[in-house]
Amino acid sequence: MSDVKQLKAVARDRVGKGAARAVRRQGQVPAVIYGGGQPPQAIALDFNQMKQLIYAGHFRTTIFEIDVDGASVRAIPRDYQLDPVKDFPIHVDFMRIAAGSTVTVEVAVHVVGQERSPGMKRGGALNLVRHTVELTVPADAIPDYIEADVSSMDINDSLHISAVNLPAGAKPTITDRDFTILSITAAAGMRDTAGETAEPAPAA
């Protein structure tokens, strides 16, 4: 689970494109905190800190305690925008979270057990169908990732979401089917070899 990280912010009185550009010229990133039954709150955050946090990974599954001019707000990032040319952050959206609430997040899939997989040992290829899975989780227990264990999988086996051990309280948002996370397939070379060694059909 991600630890709660601290952020310092200052409130912004002005909003709009012109105000956002002025914030960026001051070495800050414009942002907004919304939700929780309260009006949106425009804030400004340190540019270098936000850039480091976004590129460190797990940004959108991390809870932040944001100090806005001395008032503390607990929130989670919902979205961020990057400059299309220079790839640095230009805006961030946060959503307020309350104790006991749930949030919907995209959680990364980490594959484990490749070295023990019968299929991988025989030269099979890992086909990762979903790099992330959308889950509804308790706001105070957001996982950094979920593990997909392939240690018992052979060639042509598939792993579905029902076979993944999810953290307590976590549920997939897709509930109408047991969707596939990954599969182990025969590598192209194995398929070619199988075709070459197949016995020809008897002549008519």
UniProtKB/TrEMBL annotation:
GO terms under biological process: translation
Q: Which Pfam families match?
A: Ribosomal_L25p, Ribosomal_TL5_C
> In this protein, which residues make up the domain named Large ribosomal subunit protein bL25 beta?
103-187
As one GO molecular function, the record gives: structural constituent of ribosome
Question: What InterPro entries would the database entry show?
Answer: Rbsml_bL25/Gln-tRNA_synth_N (IPR020056), Ribosomal_bL25/Gln-tRNA_synth (IPR011035), Ribosomal_bL25_b-dom (IPR020057), Ribosomal_bL25_C (IPR037121), Ribosomal_bL25_long (IPR001021), Ribosomal_L25_dom (IPR029751), Ribosomal_uL5_bac-type (IPR020930)
Nucleotide-binding recorded as keyword: no
Per UniProt, the keywords (alphabetical) are:
Ribonucleoprotein, Ribosomal protein, RNA-binding, rRNA-binding
A GO CC annotation given for this chain: cytosolic large ribosomal subunit
- In what residue span(s) does the Large ribosomal subunit protein bL25 L25 domain sit? 7-94
Subunit-level organization: Part of the 50S ribosomal subunit; part of the 5S rRNA/L5/L18/L25 subcomplex. Contacts the 5S rRNA. Binds to the 5S rRNA independently of L5 and L18.
> What family name appears in the similarity comment?
Belongs to the bacterial ribosomal protein bL25 family. CTC subfamily.
Instruction: Quote the function comment for this protein.
Output: This is one of the proteins that binds to the 5S RNA in the ribosome where it forms part of the central protuberance.
This chain's protein is named: Large ribosomal subunit protein bL25
Per the UniProt entry, what species is this protein from, by scientific name? Salinarimonas soli
Gene transcribed to yield this protein: rplY
